[in-house]
Amino acid sequence: MTAGMGQLRALKYLQRNGESLLGLTKVLSTVAGGSWVGQTFSYLARASDDAFLNGYVADPARLVPSATAGHSLAETLDQLPEGNLGRSIDTGLFSPVGLLVSAYLLWKFAKVPPDRLWQTLVGSHILKPYGLYDPGRRKAPASLFSFDRHTLEQDVVGPNPPWRRRPPT
């Protein structure tokens, strides 16, 4: 996710004919953790890219560990602007121990199936603060999705037979 945020910041910083490459980007292709930043960036209506991604810092020598006079918020490593994607995982619950305890509680008491625990945790911590996660009655994701129904059936559900019992969308 952090790498994806940095890549999007760089695309915003780089210019072509006076317009950022991020503004010229039509499609994002993501995989694994990059999908969490790609999905929220693509589908979220937000006030500004700088708040969501934080500003680009071209000179790493400008980075400071904490608030320092003469340095912007983007250059301050221990602070993120309101609305920044990183703030959603800046809690004690999004830690190895916190995630383990949360996963156990979701499995034991909410009966979230083991193959949906990670999606449930990431959805709850990363997507839900932005209104992009609407879990089912048991707090787990209520559906699967992909580019189109054919891709969903062939590439997602096909190789994962246990997922077939859940209705795709």
Cα-atom Rg, whole angstroms?
A: 18 Å
Q: Helix and strand string, N-terminal first?
A: HEEHHHHHH
Number of domains: 2
Question: Share of helix among residues?
Answer: 25-40%
The largest sheet has its strands arranged as 1-2
Q: What class would the helix/strand composition place it in?
A: mainly alpha
Q: State mean pLDDT (0 to 100 scale).
A: 83
Low-confidence stretches: none
Please state roughly what percent of the residues sit in beta strands, choosing from under 5%, 5-15%, 15-25%, 25-35%, 35-45% or over 45%.
under 5%
The shape is globular
Write the layout of secondary structure elements.
Elements: H1 2-13, E1 15-16, E2 19-20, H2 21-24, H3 34-43, H4 49-53, H5 96-109, H6 117-127, H7 149-157
Antiparallel strand pairs: 1-2
Describe this structure in words.
Helices cover 38% and strands 2% of the residues. It has a two-stranded antiparallel ribbon. It has two domains: 2-87, no CATH class; 96-165, no CATH class. The protein is globular, with a radius of gyration of 18 Å. With 169 residues, the protein is an all-alpha fold. The longest helix is centred in the middle third of the chain and has 14 residues, at 96-109.
Main attributes?
globular; 2 domains; 7 helices; 169 residues; mainly alpha
